[in-house]
Input
Amino acid sequence: MNALSPDRQGNMAGAKSHDLKLRDLSKKYDQHGEEYAVHDMNLDVVKGEFVSFLGPSGSGKTTTLMMIAGFESLTSGDIEIDGRSIAGFPPEKRNIGMVFQNYALFPKMTVANNIGFPLKMRGISGNERTQAVERLLNLVDLPGYGHRYPRQLSGGQQQRVALARALVFGPNILLLDEPMGALDRKLREQLQMELKKLQRSLGITTIYVTHDQEEAMVLSDRIVIMDQGKVQQVGTPSEVYYQPANSFAAKFLGVANMIAGEVVRESRAGGIGKAAVAGAELHFYSANAVPKGAKVDLFLRPECIALDGHGDGADKLEGKIESAIFVGEATRVTVRLSDGTLMNVTNSNSSGFVEFAVGNDVTLSWDRGRALALTG
Amino acid sequence: MTAALFYPLSLMVWRSFSDPELGFQHYLRLAEQPVYLRITLTTLEVSAIVTLACLLIGYPVAYAASNRGPRMRLILLATVMMPFWTSLLVRTYAFMVILGQGGPFTSLFDILAWQEPPRLIYNRFGAILGMIYVMLPFMVMTIFAVTSEIDANYRKAARSLGAGPWRAFTDVYLPQSYPGITGGVLLVFIVSIGFYVTPALLGGRKETFIAQVIQLNVQEIINWGFAAGLAVVLLIVTMTLLLVYDRLLGHESVMRPRGVGSE
Output
């Protein structure tokens, strides 16, 4: 792994990208137990890709990151960079840049010494190191901050220093462990944009761990949704949003309407079937084959449902308005169906504000095939 | 509070100049007789050795207690603290039994028939060993108070940035533990200088500490003025050393609040 060459040439942006493969990766803390922190995880991250691990705490996302970084041993499986296993290497030999939660900037060192640390460890000294540090300070938009100590910086500045430190040695891949957790919303949004831009321009393969679904959507080329040590779904943000693989993925990302029903007309994989739901028969799309009589949940995003809509062939459900909240660009309406299910509907105000009176009867409708059948 | 501390101190300083009559006679005597210089040097030397030994033994213990999991922490801290709950005098006598003639150590030498068993007490070795035993918990607890607060992520960060385990320790962990080392060294050294019981019981005649001479003058010779003079000298020596130590260690000192003056 000749990691230093791009840096020595002063040409970080031209750094060659690396791919990352996780092969049947598993982690058990108790060797004899049955409980997996991570179970049979497979993932191919292509060169230059930005992939987020998204999941609740205990989902195994951080454990996986720590295994890639070399801080957790593997119970089984393998980790490869450019087709070569790194599982046997200690962290310092993996050449992976990592930004920690709360940044872990060394408090007794100046910003310049923090950023220069990985170069020092690689035997790079003098002018070469000074120049590399300067260049990275410019890259993260903190020129002239080298002589300060970490505690003299704001949270956002500390985050940028941590990023500069993780990039200065030209790592093969970049890992970030919830680096925005401690920042306020506005700053977070700004730093997200900067990070995305920087990552694009460097073309560095990046793994980002977060429990914030919005953050994952903003930043990622692909999202890996994890729960209880298992990958629930891998896909682009729009894929995981509109075509969740199961009810966990559906509920974890955004607001999901789930209506329980029973299949009355079977569907082949990738076909349209029909289900009896809340006193009506509705069409559904299913990625997998579902037989007649199977129990399914019909999944719909709030913005896919029209209120008092029209259009032929549209699926319809009747209900009563329970609440309506105007939030500016849209009105969020909750509707109680006859079987008691509560539906969230986002009614766009793109063609003007519409008043919804609580207690009124209302018809929900959507295009045929919009509803997705989830079995898991 | 300051007044309560300052009053007896100033009384002592005054007495060293005024008891039994006004003048510098006690200090002249201290300067003229080389025995007092020797005693002072012995006190400082033994205290320094004890402090260094406590640091070398105590740091790894505090490190392990901070980094090797909650069970290790419990075992180590309990072991270190246990002697604390016994009286100093009892512990010192116990040492006399263990190390003295006919004790387990000399018996072991007899069985192995290896010449004369070496003398383990009533000499410098005995005094130092006994003092280390008494002072170690202070060192461990002072360092542990600092090292237990050092986030494990710092070392992980160092490792991910290319530092091997040893460099991660020396370049990142160790500097963060300096306040603990500074505090522990100060505490152990200053308490050691004032030691009385342990060197008296476990040391030989050559290991006389200043505190022993003070006690002799207060209780037996009844020369309070001279005792006060000795105490003042001890105080000045200690404070001088403190100042030198503070200079050498710069901003890591206990005399200035942490983080101030280092910019």
Remarks:
- The first strand of chain A starts at residue 20 and ends at 27.
- The radius of gyration of chain A is 25 Å.
